[in-house]
Amino acid sequence: MTNTWIAILCFLIVVFEGYDIVALGATIPVLTDPEVGGHSVDAMNWVNTFSLIGVGIGAAFMGRLADRFGRRRPLLIAVLVFSIFTVIFPLMPDPVLMGASRFIAGLGLGGCMPVALAMMQENAPVGRRALANNLPMVGYHLGAVLASLTGRAAGAEWSSLYYLGGGLGVALLAVLWFKLPETAPLAPGSDAPRSSFADVVKPAFLRSSIGLWIAAFMGLVLVYGLNAWLPKIMGAAGYPVADSLVMLFVLNLGAIVGLVISAFAADAKGIKGVAMLWFAASAVFLVLLAIPFGSQVVLTAVIFVTGVFVFSAQGLMYVYAGHIYPRDLVATGIGLASGIGRFGAIVGPYITGLMVAAGTAYPGAFFLYGGAAVIAVLVILQMPNPRKAVKGAADVDAQRVSA
After folding, report:
1. 0.90 exceeded by the pTM?
2. pLDDT score for 193
């Protein structure tokens, strides 16, 4: 029953991340409406950027705290922080304070995913680590859809989106307090040195760590670039706005299917080969989107398959971290991959926005995304086989115990 509660609660935590990340995007049109929010587009872009920076920093440092102090307390703190600062966001009177509140909320929000995924992987049945990692990631897309629908229903009453998200976060915190067990990794002997950030760049993990960071960065360039700009890019290609919005929905529907398929594939065939295949297929289908399709049915099918590969390729990097690091570095490794990858979430939409403004986003953005996916394939190719990395991790643990 304990594992069931862990699975349910970790799923809900990731739902909240998807909800909160998309909430600002869903309300920016209202916040920039002169008759409602009255804020400039530039100001709201900075608010969004500060939010993403907070998420990146929170992911990196909360993962380390979870390996140092156990999973439960850092996760409770992270949920508390993002819930409180989500609720107070609508009360901020100007963009500076709005950006500050979103930054602090991002610190908590970013800390949730690496800790939740580490817990899921630790408690996964043998041979099901990828599935345990990817199922909560489905919750991210569910949260994104809920935020989009809630934002559409809220309209000018945009603040209700944040009161709802923060309030439900507080309710979730209460359930976590009573039902979330401590699942800290088994520590080495009491006299052994504790792990630290520096351990992930020691010789046993250096190539793997750098590969993870670059691949996660490139993966989030794709995920956030497409989610932020696909409707605009396809609109520039001559497709109706309504059809472009449907394309975004189809893309995310493919993501949910891909998360499940890639999990079973990675558990059955090995994480390295599947990760390379998923990024390579992403590159192929992204470039295909640069070709004008005469058939709406064919175009929709290509977008769906693109979603199957693009979004789950990024998620597989967190599975990879679970394979290459020892137990007292898993949350640190996932957190660093997530945190560094978040800068891809900033760079991708920013560069795409420049291309949209210059009128080169179609087809140029798809070649940009395809190139990013190819880079991910190349860096994963140079990474050691995870089984060898696990052996290295075990050797490091043995050294700690014998020290």
Report:
1. no
2. 56
